[in-house]
Amino acid sequence: MPQIAPLTTLPFAKWGLGFSRPLVIAGPCSAESRDQVLATARGIVQHAPQVKAFRAGVWKPRTQPGHFEGSGNVALNWLKAVREETGLYTVVEVATAEHVDACLKAGIDMLWIGARTTPNPFSVQEIADALRGVDIPVFVKNPINPDLHLWIGALERLGRAGLTRLAAIHRGFNWFERTAYRNSPMWEFPIRLKARFPELELVCDPSHISGTTEHIGSLAQQALDLNFSGLMIESHRDPTTALSDAQQQLTPERLGEVVSALIVREQHAAIESDRLQELRDLIDQLDEEIAQKMGSRMDIAERIGEWKADHNVVIPQPERWARIMTRQLRLAKELGLSAAFVEGVDERHP
Ligand code: PEP
Ligand code: MN
After folding, report:
1. What is 12-261's CATH superfamily?
2. Per-residue pLDDT, 267
3. C-alpha 228 chain-centroid distance
4. pLDDT of residue 348
5. Which one of the ligands is nearest to 171 CA?
6. Measured between alpha carbons, how far is 58 from 64 in angstroms, rounded to an integer?
7. Termini Cα distance of the chain
8. CA pair distance 284, 237, nearest whole angstrom
9. Is residue 346 over pLDDT 80?
10. What tens digit of pLDDT does each residue of 39-93 get?
11. CATH number of 272-345
12. For residue 272, how far is its CA from the centre of ligand 1 (angstroms)?
């Protein structure tokens, strides 16, 4: 492993922007027009006064071509107008050095790196180089795929460029197993990130996890219960006409209701108990994952049983069973688990 300087990040309280837990960021997926941006910002100020920062995508990284790719540089003027009129801080997604320069020139307050950019070390390095010597807050979304190292690597690249007002945004992961969400929350990843960097502020983006408006409130609450320090929620004055992510955007009115319904529990006073809670949360999340995996394994085992019955093959296959056990016992040894434990798990799920 290469030796790199430890990541130093400041808590929200030291960002000098008056942020406290929970920091709520809201705004449309995309800045579509001056009217849409300003009407949304006014609605947010009116209905969700807890919101401190206004987000909007100016350059949109679309998975496939042919979709709305953002309004580009002109939209930065609309955000400037939001800042002047409402006092909300502005935050924009950047993916290239040109985006960074344009945002800095336009006086955008904060930046975020999107889930499709975080996993690309060339892009992240380009952004970090463009930010060297600039003291601006940057939020780093998790990579679209569940890889903690890429997430950490992106934060470290920015840290090495001298940035300290850094935070991570958890927006869920693209996962091949079908879940109730657009992006699987896999909470153990942000929890592990926090365990590794206890000072790092964690923000949850329930909009991109949910993919619809349905789960936004419950995901936001779950994030706060897991000790996240902030939320980024998509809001559009008229989601039905949105040019991107129409399904998951809340009207400012609804946003106000969702945010007001959140219960913010006190953080534990003692650092030790925070740490204990984090570890317990980690265990709970892993247990949930294990249960889900066991369920998936059971489903597949049942399908194998059915296939064997249809094809007149006897169900127990002793050689295969012996192979599985040998592999599992080897794995158990490598992981420091007892053989009895692994045998017990596998016996319950033949
Ligand atoms: C967004 O915030 O609108 C966006 C594109 O998000 P993500 O990078 O998380 O997909
Ligand atoms: Mn979006």
Report:
1. Aldolase class I (3.20.20.70)
2. 66
3. 11
4. 43
5. 1
6. 17
7. 39
8. 38
9. no
10. 999 999 999 999 999 999 999 999 899 999 999 999 999 999 999 999 999 999 9
11. 1.20.59
12. 34
Q: Where do the CATH 1.20.59 domains begin and end in the chain? A: 272-345
Q: Give the angle subtended at the CA of 138 by the CAs of 266 and 204, to the nearest 5°.
A: 40
For the CA of 55, the nearest atom of ligand 1: 2
Residues carrying CATH 3.20.20.70, the chain: 12-261
Position 144 pLDDT exceeds 60: yes
What is the tens place of the pLDDT at every residue in 180-205?
899 999 999 999 999 999 999 999 99
Q: What's the pLDDT at 1?
A: 63
- Dist. CA 129–CA 124, nearest whole Å: 9
Q: What is the mean pLDDT of the chain?
A: 91
Amino acid letter, 299: D
Ligand 1: list residues with CB < 6 Å. Answer: 29, 57, 61, 114-116, 141, 171, 208
Token couple for 43: 């609605």
Residue nearest to atom 9 of ligand 1 (CA): 115
Contact yes or no for 202/170 (Cβ under 8 A): yes
Reported as a single tens digit per residue, the pLDDT across 256-289 is: 999 999 999 976 544 456 777 777 878 877 877 7
Four-residue CA torsion sign, 47, 30, 225, 22: negative
Question: What is d(CA 156, CA 5) in angstroms, rounded to the nearest whole number?
Answer: 9
Closest C-alpha among 110, 60, 120, 66 to residue 88: 110
Which residues, 6 or more positions from 47, have their beta carbon under 8 angstroms from its beta carbon? 252, 253, 255, 256
CA–CA separation, 226 vs 193, rounded Å? 13
